[in-house]
Amino acid sequence: MGFNAENLDPRPANHTDSRFMSKRTDRDLYEVIKGGGRAVGKATLMPPWGGNLNDTQIKSLILYLRRLCMCKHE
Ligand code: HEM
Q1: 20-60: per-residue pLDDT in tens?
Q2: Residue 74 lies inside a defined structural domain of this protein
Q3: Fewest CB atoms within 10 Å of the CB: 3, 5, 42, 70?
Q4: Beta-carbon neighbour count of residue 60 at 10 Å?
């Protein structure tokens, strides 16, 4: 986690938690990364990245998240 993660409420998602992450489809992950928490009814503390990251970059982040959790959508 980043240096300020302890101070966030809610805390950022734990991407190594495979039980949690396997409930998310790749589409869910795409939407929250692109539009931020606000776009999916979650905390606005999760910033939107769609202005900074293109489609390919977001997809490669999703692959990275799947490596962190060692899981896929069940
Ligand atoms: C590019 C880097 C990032 C990625 C790929 C990412 C990815 C995600 C994903 C996939 C979720 C949703 C988890 C779920 O399905 O419930 C999430 C939630 C969250 N993220 Fe990020 N995140 C990033 C950067 C950040 C940063 C920089 C912050 C804060 C400064 C942050 C704060 C949060 C918080 C607080 C939540 C929880 C939202 C809630 O449960 O209501 N994230 N993040």
Answers
A1: 999 999 999 999 999 999 999 999 999 999 999 999 999 99
A2: no
A3: 3
A4: 11
Distance from the alpha carbon of residue 13 to the mean position of ligand 1, in angstroms: 6
Residues 49 and 17: their CA atoms lie apart, in Å, by 22
> The whole model's pTM is what?
0.93
Total number of domains constituting the chain: 1
28 CA to centre of ligand 1 in angstroms:
12
**How many Cβ atoms are within 10 Å of 46's Cβ, its own excluded?**
19
pLDDT band at 74 (very low <50, low <70, confident <90, very high): confident
**Residue 61: which domain range?**
17-69
| Ligand 1 atom closest to 28 (CA) | 15
- 32: burial class by Cβ within 10 Å (0-12, 13-18, 19+)? buried
